């Protein structure tokens, strides 16, 4: 019966009715219009705001660490296996629609991250906590809706997603290096346990070290492949655009598949609107000291995830098309494409990269769910211990299990999280617009706008002592 309910919900959200896709596209258009396409107007400023982003105080993490933490959760199987799946099901045109949804998603990511920063609180350890459950409670005064979001978050990021990422790692290592999942699962669980027991600050420090390394390594590999095949690049780009609008031989019949798969995989990869990244945004001590600064930081995260890293995967696959077989799916397509370009070292490279991509997601997922323990008054040694043991048990189990039913539960949890979060941030649109206007007005007179609660009309109220 439970499986039937999960299947029904997933069919509405992701399957036949695709409600979630329509909701997220609408949200992207909505916030792009309300914020006057801030992702295009202030594209350059996204990078400029990162100046001084390594600064933080004892209550939070730096903006740079928040960016890396957000990327560590975003960057995972979606960037490698998800892009391959989009191309195999929707053709090369799916890449174009993946770019479109990323541009729209940048505005949604900007909006939700502002709210995460504005409505953050301090826990008993004087560390910042925040996220959708917090801004739903403080901004909308709907604690029941906040609890619904938090429960879905625990089911998804706290349990299911980490098990799936661990399964991806063990499968890649077993396929390439013939390492038993029993041993790889034990190592993954042990290292993850050491990192997460230090809390958000420990996870942020880990992300700060690993994310730039793995991202640059993958980008350099893709650039090398591109330069070697530079004569084919114009044809690949032309094929992307022609396929995106049904102008190829396949015609309009493939147009719907390109749009559906490009949008769906783009949304799954960058997580804009899902309500996950606001947890990292809330933990930051932004520079400048204004909630909107963290909006720019996380908007940059959406850009890096999809427009840069997903595009790298796409170009590697498309430059190898016709030489990697047609019966494979997911990560195998990416591995074979890289093997075609780089020989056997390509397969090994993808296995190592997917291990790093997935492992960073494992530890970041812990931080997101753990942030909501404060909401239930469980952020004490007993609550954290029980949650940590459950989380680590799922990581080890996931590395050795068949995950079809867990995937279904995770899809449902992510879908419900997104519906709740999108509903909340749209209801909080006046606050988002007022905060953005305040920042941009002050930016005309100073390089570091300071936020003062008295200057901006917001919905609900923030915690006393956080924003004075």
Features:
1% strand; 468 residues; mainly alpha; single chain; two-stranded antiparallel sheet; Amino acid/polyamine transporter I
Nutshell version of this structure?
72% of the residues lie in helices and 1% in strands. The chain has 468 residues and is mostly helical. The chain crosses the membrane at residues 20-38, 96-119, 140-159, 179-197, 209-230, 296-320, 348-369, 381-399, 411-433.
Please describe what this structure looks like.
Strand 1 and strand 2 form a beta hairpin. About 70% of the residues lie in helices and about 0% in strands. The chain is globular and about 60 Å long. The mean pLDDT is about 85. It has a single domain, classed as Up-down Bundle (Amino acid/polyamine transporter I), CATH 1.20.1740. It has about 475 residues and is mainly α. It has a two-stranded antiparallel ribbon with strand order 1-2.
| Proportion of strand residues | under 5%
CATH architecture annotation name:
Up-down Bundle
Mind summarizing the main beta sheet?
2 strands, antiparallel
Q: How many structural domains?
A: 1
Main sheet: strand order:
1-2
- Low-pLDDT windows of residues: none
User: How far apart, in Å, are the first and last alpha carbons?
Assistant: 50 Å
Helix content: over 70%
> What structural class do the secondary elements suggest?
mainly alpha
The number of helices is: 20
CATH topology: Amino acid/polyamine transporter I
What global shape is seen? globular
Radius of gyration: 21 Å
The CATH C-level name is Mainly Alpha
H/E element sequence:
HHHHHHHEEHHHHHHHHHHHHH
In total, how many beta strands? 2
Mean pLDDT: 87
Subcellular location: Cell inner membrane; Cell membrane
Transmembrane segments: 20-38, 96-119, 140-159, 179-197, 209-230, 296-320, 348-369, 381-399, 411-433
InterPro entries: Na/Ala_symport
GO molecular function, one term: amino acid:sodium symporter activity
